[in-house]
Write a structure and sequence with these properties.
mainly alpha; 2 domains; two-stranded antiparallel sheet; DNA polymerase, domain 1; elongated
């Protein structure tokens, strides 16, 4: 275990509405929360650490989810796997830009030769003329 490191946990109170400080600080081996006054520098510091950790984790989860959503839509196209799908989204950023790309643009991508670029170009044209992909393959921008 950890020795010489002071541990604490912060738990939300019953009410989570803005302006209501209901957080409780718990320490290992103590049954009851530590008595910290609402608005005290110690409590505000611990709340700041918690909020920063939550923001970090949530932003990572959103970024991962967005990447997965962006990649998944094109995977269904012939000759396009997860790696190619990711490369297309990183390079073009939108379906409109992919539809507007010519064979030469596609051929400059890593792992693409003239034949693969031409085949993907034809597939994108067919997809565009058919009204676009299924809604689930559209990129979703999360808040």
């Amino acid at each position: 275990g950890l020795e010489g490191v002071a541990l604490a946990s912060i738990a939300n109170g019953e009410s989570r509405r803005a302006g209501e400080l209901g957080d409780a600080i718990f320490r290992p081996g103590r049954k009851n929360p530590m008595p910290l006054k609402p608005g005290s520098p110690e409590l505000l510091f611990l709340q700041h650490v918690r909020d920063t950790a939550h923001r970090f984790v949530i932003s990572r989860l959103r970024r991962h989810k967005r990447t997965a959503q962006l990649s998944s839509g094109l995977d269904a196209l012939p000759g396009v796997g997860p790696k190619t799908s990711r490369l297309l989204w990183e390079r073009f950023g939108s379906l409109e830009a992919m539809f507007a790309a010519d064979v030469e643009d596609l051929a400059t991508m890593p792992g693409f030769g003239p034949r693969k670029a031409a085949a993907l170009h034809d597939t994108l044209r067919t997809l565009q003329n058919a009204g676009g992909p299924e809604p689930s393959s559209e990129p979703t921008i999360l808040p």
